């Protein structure tokens, strides 16, 4: 490599590099640069174009200029306004700045021209291969960048010198001044060749990506434009056909869908259905089906919830003000509230309230909703026998609609209401499916987060719904369904509880409902007690409310007809409004008798006493049972007589007695069916009394089942039975020993003035009730 040195005016460039062979226009306005150009024009018109390291410096020093630059020929100079000089220069040769000579008017520099002999070591074949590759790359670059000018391509194609080809390609590709400066710093042509090949390859890939992105954007824009045009055309066609309603409805649905609080899956389903709805003629039957389906989806509270109340004191106050008693139910709700207050979100329990009619099961659910500040919705399941009532009908059927669960959720308007499943023990099944089985998914906390209604088709989240269910008996509820619920027994009300409920709730409610005021009418406590005992026979207070309502209506009529200012109801004038007493209590017998024992029974309207009578007469050993006894009670009677025969020697009963005498067991009120596993010891006691001619104490009642060996088995409905004994003025009640835990749960008010004796065997029963 031979080196040539010379002095030359220096033109400092900002953010710009001039490469050898490049023709470029420069606008210069600095005095030192203008003076340098003017000096060059007075000589051989050559300048040294070099890039500044920092563009903000006005008078750069040597170390503030790049080392490599280009000796350039000034071909044209034009003076513009504001002292700007426009200069056209052509890069001639790469050179290195050696010394910086600062003249009075401009910068002068000593530069060294560098000759490149790096390609001399390559064979002609290698040079040809390199040129062919670079020409091919440049041609591909021109195609990808849409820069396929014929003149440039022809010029590049005709070049046969590798150094010249490299420099020519460098000035014809797009690159920023930093890349240009990198090329400037590469003295050897072989290094420039490699750098340019890499640069062109990257640019080609970059343009491919940009083209692909532009193509996708253009395709999307074209599609949107096409849809817009088609929509406008369709709008005009529909207007011509008079079918503008469907389109406006579809637009309204789309607006509602945008505002809907729901997941993307739900919104996509709704939009898909709306798009299908647009293509259906409004006069077709399918349009009505599609419209109903879209409106159902839009009306469902997918992600809309209501903030619940966690205030325990307020919840307790509300429940106590609206209901008297029902301690277990209230405690369970307060437990749930306490857990949720600590954890932030407790698992919603599925509570099933089981008890006789009229005990406030349905109303307590509404009271709980008020206490928790929840929306309340009720589903009546009594008599429902079609599975589709729960899961919904498929859209393919005429008149299809969502199931009762989804419909209730829709009416509640939030995803976390209190939903009451009323009379869950009265669902049934037929050839259309098992309704109780359909409820299994609804009431399963592990499954109901994605409950699928056949009509809606999109999973609905029921996990935040607080389910309450009511039933009169658990016997008819299928075991798998019962297993998913937490059963709370709502037992019969005591007379005292009924009196409190009547005073605090029923009387004010009925007075208001019948247009009266507390000043116009009042009912005394004695009158209410008489209504409870003589005019109603129930476990709850439904009939009690009806009787109070009847009094209020008659009182309202008196006020209007007779212009009375005030009416007072007491025990003396009660029969004027309600007529004669309808129910009398079967009080305990005054004298002890042979063959008569008092039993206790549970009925759907509370507890009752059963007087069992047994007569012995000469005969052939037959036993007759009368009084509409069920199979269980008949078996209890047979078990009782078998026990008596097995211990006959203990009571001095002759073996032939049972072969020579007939026995008749009767329970009065024969028109009323009687059955249940709790009259065994009572019938055995009455039969033994009749056989041994021993009297039974009249003031003792008993309940319990008997075995062949004389053991006493536990029973249910204990609270109702003890209340019936109290009403009948019975002093002592025999209860199976295994029911002791049930007695301990009863309120002190129920056990007041009554003696409870626990028995395990018939020997203890006989010693407690029979007078030897």
What topology emerges from the helices and strands here?
Elements: E1 3-13, E2 23-28, H1 31-42, E3 46-51, E4 68-79, E5 85-102, E6 107-114, H2 124-144, H3 150-158, H4 162-171, H5 177-185, H6 189-241, H7 244-259, H8 264-278, H9 285-299, H10 312-322, H11 327-343, E7 351-354, H12 361-372, E8 376-380, H13 388-391, H14 404-412, E9 418-422, E10 429-430, E11 433-434, H15 435-442, E12 466-471, H16 479-483, E13 486-489, H17 495-513, E14 521-523, H18 525-535, H19 542-562, E15 567-569, H20 574-578, E16 593-594, E17 596-603, E18 606-618, E19 623-626, H21 631-646, H22 657-660, E20 661-666, H23 680-692, E21 695-696, E22 700-702, E23 705-706, E24 712-713, H24 718-727, E25 732-736, H25 740-744, H26 748-751, E26 755-759, H27 762-769, E27 770-771
Parallel strand pairs: 1-3, 7-12, 7-13, 8-9, 9-12, 14-15, 17-22, 19-20, 22-25, 25-26
Antiparallel strand pairs: 1-6, 2-5, 3-4, 4-5, 5-6, 10-11, 16-21, 17-18, 18-20, 21-27, 23-24
Helix pairs in contact: 2-4, 2-6, 4-6, 7-8, 8-9, 10-11, 10-12, 17-18, 17-19, 21-23
